[in-house]
Amino acid sequence: MIQRTQLPNKSNESTVYSIFIENFGHVSLKHFDIKRDASILHTWVNEPYAFFWGMQGSSLEEVKKEYIELLKPDHYDIFTGYHNDQPAFFLERYTPSKDIISNYYDAKNSDCGVHIIVAPPVQNKIPGFTLHLFQTIMDFVFTNTTIDRILVEPDIRNKKMFTLCERIGFVTDKTVELPHKTAQLAFLDKNRYQQQKTHKLSIHKQ
């Protein structure tokens, strides 16, 4: 059985969320810091696997400028995620009702949108690496009790993203033409997600 234990934030005040997953390790999130994190993000977005992030060929200064702008709206947050204290993902969290995406579906105030980029693949892959990270992100987002639903809107060609989201419990919705991509909307309902987790836990206990 995989146990997930949320940890208190005593060791580092900048850590906003921390959890220990049995046989996987610690996953934690901190607020994104341009000086600390921009060079890491710049390296990742220029890797071939990050094609759908839409920043390939960007310079470090262009990445910094983009993320300085992203951090300006009150409804937009960015976090750096760590696995056993090593950078593992970046999470962009935003309010769809205050974003351009609200022009393409009936956005609710209880919706939360996310964009996620995970660290480049390594030679010695850790089983379930990306799945554990995505589940931790969903758990973190749902710690905000006002959030009932999480939205993703990946490029329709990003099949790996669809497969992963479906494993977590996302349900695909309509396809929309955004200014920069054809996007597949998908939603994760909080109650459904929590019921699914409870069901899996009960199976492990049997």
Automatic annotation (TrEMBL):
Entry keyword annotation includes Mitochondrion: no
Pathway: Siderophore biosynthesis
Pfam families: Acetyltransf_8
SMART domains: AlcB (SM01006)
Domain of life: Bacteria
Start and end residues of each Acyltransferase MbtK/IucB-like conserved domain: 30-77
PANTHER family with a match to the protein in the record: LYSINE N-ACYLTRANSFERASE C17G9.06C-RELATED
Record's protein name: GNAT family N-acetyltransferase
Species this chain originates from: Aquimarina hainanensis
